[in-house]
């Protein structure tokens, strides 16, 4: 495993992180035993960055990560979590931040996460959605400062909803947060247009999420595939057909030492702005496969060839 700086925080995070949405089990089929085994294998394989959120199972994912961290107290584990929006809207739609992240609410949910995680200082506390119209509002900023002063969190950031990297250009340039979490994958290369350059200039850490495009870039989908989770409305019949066709055109990335999902992770890591990529993992097999992506990298020629596969669309809408 290789490590990169998370912006100017001084934290060195594993290039391959661990996305903890799936182990929350609210929308995914997961069991706690497999989840704990996956977390342990990840740590033993060199992964030290674990990204969870209160809304992943209403604290369940945080409880699992907290118990795991307690069992491994002597080892370096970096935990990031997120405060859910008060109005429960993903993506954010309200320009009035007082309806989404009022100060007292941020403080309340940060404390809930702190307790869920076993009352260990949160390494990175993020707002789970963001709009740049909130940039200069005092409430959320005061909450972050109080939480740092009280030792509840060390660093702070925001997670950008959906495919909207330009919605965080102002906060990325402001110096008010330590990290930005954003969708970035072979299909959605849009963070490279503006956001990554701003983050590099300001030494803001970048956490790349959804590297597999909600599973399509694993290469395992078929046109007659049936979903039994939230993706039933994400990959409708027409969308699924187009996705499968587009993924088929990426099979040239596979070779004897690399699978398509491993190439997808290596694509995220080719950009120097990216601090870590956080594929979702719910069992040890996922972890083992993801970790192997750290053994290689895409060539410059392969990255350039992938430019033609950029696909501007938003299935969350």
Structure notes:
It is a single chain. The longest helix has 14 residues, at 103-116. The radius of gyration is 18 Å and the shape is globular. The protein has ten helices and ten strands. It is an alpha/beta fold. Strands 3-4-5-6-7-8-9-10 form an eight-stranded parallel β-sheet, with helices on one face. It has a two-stranded antiparallel ribbon with strand order 1-2. The chain has helices at 32-44, 60-71, 103-116, 138-149, 169-174, 195-202, 237-248, 260-270, 284-292, 300-306, and strands at 3-5, 12-14, 18-19, 49-51, 78-83, 122-127, 153-159, 179-183, 205-209, 276-277. The chain has one domain (3-222, 256-308): NADP-dependent oxidoreductase domain (TIM Barrel). Helix 2 (60-71) links the parallel strand 4 and strand 5. The chain is 33% helix and 13% strand. Helix 1 packs parallel to helix 9 (284-292) and helix 3 (103-116) packs parallel to helix 4.
Brief summary:
The chain is of the alpha/beta class and 317 residues long. The chain contains 10 helices and 10 strands. Helix 1 packs parallel to helix 9 (284-292).
List the helices and strands and how they pair.
Layout: E1 3-5, E2 12-14, E3 18-19, H1 32-44, E4 49-51, H2 60-71, E5 78-83, H3 103-116, E6 122-127, H4 138-149, E7 153-159, H5 169-174, E8 179-183, H6 195-202, E9 205-209, H7 237-248, H8 260-270, E10 276-277, H9 284-292, H10 300-306
Parallel strand pairs: 3-4, 4-5, 5-6, 6-7, 7-8, 8-9, 9-10
Antiparallel strand pairs: 1-2
Helix pairs in contact: 1-9, 3-4
């Amino acid at each position: 495993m290789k490590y990169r700086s998370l912006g100017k925080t001084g934290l060195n995070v594993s290039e391959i992180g661990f996305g903890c949405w799936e182990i929350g089990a609210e929308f995914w089929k997961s069991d706690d035993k497999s989840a704990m085994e996956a977390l342990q294998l990840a740590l033993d394989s060199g992964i030290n960055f674990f990204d969870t959120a209160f809304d992943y199972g209403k604290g369940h994912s945080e409880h699992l990560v907290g118990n795991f961290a307690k069992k491994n107290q002597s080892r370096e584990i970096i935990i990031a979590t997120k405060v859910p929006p008060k109005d429960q809207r993903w993506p954010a739609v309200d320009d009035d931040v007082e309806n989404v992240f009022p100060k007292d609410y941020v403080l309340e949910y940060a404390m809930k996460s702190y307790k869920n995680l076993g009352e260990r200082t949160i390494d990175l506390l993020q707002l789970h959605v963001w709009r740049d119209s909130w940039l200069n509002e005092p409430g959320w900023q005061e909450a972050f400062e109080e939480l740092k002063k009280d030792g509840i969190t060390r660093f702070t950031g925001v997670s950008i909803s959906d495919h909207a990297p330009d919605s965080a250009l102002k906060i990325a340039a402001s110096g008010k947060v330590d990290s930005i979490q954003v969708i970035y994958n072979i299909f959605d290369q849009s963070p490279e247009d503006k956001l990554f350059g701003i983050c590099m200039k300001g030494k803001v850490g970048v956490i790349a999420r959804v590297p597999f495009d909600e599973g399509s870039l694993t290469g395992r989908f078929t046109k007659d595939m049936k979903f039994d989770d939230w993706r039933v409305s994400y990959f409708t019949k027409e969308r699924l057909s187009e996705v499968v066709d587009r993924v088929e055109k990426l099979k040239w990335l596979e070779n004897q030492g690399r699978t398509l999902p491993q190439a997808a992770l290596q694509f995220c890591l080719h950009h120097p702005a990216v601090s870590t990529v956080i594929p979702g993992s719910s069992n040890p097999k996922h972890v083992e496969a993801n970790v192997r992506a750290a053994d290689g990298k895409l060539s410059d020629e392969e990255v350039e060839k992938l430019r033609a596969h950029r696909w501007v669309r938003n299935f969350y809408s």
